[in-house]
Amino acid sequence: MARAIMLQGTGSDVGKTVLVAGLCRAAKKRGLKVRPFKPQNMSNNAAVADIPGDNNHGGGEIGRAQWLQAIACGVAPTVHMNPVLLKPQTDVGAQVIVQGKVFGEARARDYQALKGRLMDAVLDSWAKVGEGADLVIVEGAGSPAEINLRSHDIANMGFATRANVPVVLVGDIDRGGVIASVAGTYLILPEEDRRMIVGYLINKFRGDVSLFDDGIKAIERFTAWRCFGVVPWLKAAARLPSEDSVVLERLASGEKRALKVAVPMLGRIANFDDLDPLKAEPQVEVVFVPPGKPLPGDAGLVVIPGSKSTIGDLIKFRENGWDRDLLAHRKRGGHVVGICGGFQMLGRIVRDPQGIEGSVTEAEGLGLLDIETVMEPEKTVRNVTARSVPFDLPLEGYEIHLGRTTGPDTLRPSAVINGADDGATSADGKVLGTYMHGLFSADAFRGKFLESLGVKGGGLDYRAEVERALDDVAAELEVHLDCDAIFGLAR
């Protein structure tokens, strides 16, 4: 079995995903065969990964964080890198994905009772990920300080103690109270869990690091834990795909550029990293519009992203008045792209006769495409190669969706995927829908698409930019962390 080390946070969104990705890349540069692992993830940003040994299946779902971390390792992602994925559908319930496949749905309270059964899948995947590897870097979820959930835990200390994996605790100084959060974690953990922690690091520091010297001494007095380093705010992290929708709450428009792209922040927004390649373009400003705010009137393009709850988000879309904003945008000659759930919303109607998404089984669509969608229980999960119909250029991406879409506008497909027509286009060509995630990652297509909107693309190689960002993050971690010590404590 490979040696392993685990990063757990004093809370959610402390930067574990980027730190694990950076450490994976640092280990790879040292010649180690390294793999990522996250026992349990909660995110509607999913990726399609291989299911080893299953040649008849198109692929399985994992969190996009582990997809990114696999890239950092230089290996293909597999479902065993994230054996349990929770995809929230309501405020109290989520779809449960186990080893890439839909396991069922569970309310938060019911899910706690499921965890004992899911630990077997987690440990099975854990053994598979370690095969042939020198090192596995594990990412926790939430915080081990959530001791009210400890008895059924599979994501933090419940996993670490079962798998005997040492833990580095991550504190986020940017949110304040980091000394209390680290020392408080020490205070409330049971002794069995406390023994698993071999030290801590501080993340997201701004300014003169020496100002925290006394903070390190204070934490040492309370915990006797060693500090592996203080990581500054990593600017390169902004060039990496984002996984957690928490980041959307902090996104704001920047300097004015040639094209403004407006993206409504749906309540169950999914796979919003589809917009990252556009954000990376120097002439493009991507604005995520929160509920209660109108879609900006000066946007040249509106992108309706994926959704884990198409009907629910469609109803909220109207309640926000975004349907009126979208119609006004169209009357001004604006362009619209709908991806996956956003594509379904652009039609005349969305039906869910079996109540797959919930109790509301039908909703009027936005009417910008002459199509209708019927939800069906069989989920399409696959990586695809495709070709853009409007520009006759290659595309590459993935599909994760429920539903079958038909109607006259599908006779003008937006793409051909694996030899079959996909999506739909309006008669004037200004409204485009597709089930394929990742279309903006295709550099040639993105350049031509922006050109059709009157904007010159920057000639960006997006995948190479992600690789450079991973290298830059790893280089920063090598400077500010004792990586030798962290890797050396793996067991």
UniProtKB/TrEMBL annotation:
<dbReference type="Pfam" id="PF07685">
    <property type="entry name" value="GATase_3"/>
</dbReference>
<dbReference type="InterPro" id="IPR004459">
    <property type="entry name" value="CobQ_synth"/>
</dbReference>
<dbReference type="Pfam" id="PF01656">
    <property type="entry name" value="CbiA"/>
</dbReference>
<feature type="active site" description="Nucleophile">
    <location>
        <position position="340"/>
    </location>
</feature>
<feature type="domain" description="CobQ/CobB/MinD/ParA nucleotide binding">
    <location>
        <begin position="5"/>
        <end position="244"/>
    </location>
</feature>
<comment type="function">
    <text>Catalyzes amidations at positions B, D, E, and G on adenosylcobyrinic A,C-diamide. NH(2) groups are provided by glutamine, and one molecule of ATP is hydrogenolyzed for each amidation.</text>
</comment>
<dbReference type="InterPro" id="IPR029062">
    <property type="entry name" value="Class_I_gatase-like"/>
</dbReference>
<feature type="domain" description="CobB/CobQ-like glutamine amidotransferase">
    <location>
        <begin position="260"/>
        <end position="444"/>
    </location>
</feature>
<keyword id="KW-0315">Glutamine amidotransferase</keyword>
<dbReference type="InterPro" id="IPR002586">
    <property type="entry name" value="CobQ/CobB/MinD/ParA_Nub-bd_dom"/>
</dbReference>
<dbReference type="InterPro" id="IPR033949">
    <property type="entry name" value="CobQ_GATase1"/>
</dbReference>
<feature type="active site">
    <location>
        <position position="437"/>
    </location>
</feature>
<dbReference type="InterPro" id="IPR027417">
    <property type="entry name" value="P-loop_NTPase"/>
</dbReference>
<dbReference type="InterPro" id="IPR011698">
    <property type="entry name" value="GATase_3"/>
</dbReference>
<keyword id="KW-0169">Cobalamin biosynthesis</keyword>
<protein>
    <recommendedName>
        <fullName>Cobyric acid synthase</fullName>
    </recommendedName>
</protein>
<comment type="pathway">
    <text>Cofactor biosynthesis; adenosylcobalamin biosynthesis.</text>
</comment>
<dbReference type="InterPro" id="IPR047045">
    <property type="entry name" value="CobQ_N"/>
</dbReference>
<comment type="similarity">
    <text>Belongs to the CobB/CobQ family. CobQ subfamily.</text>
</comment>
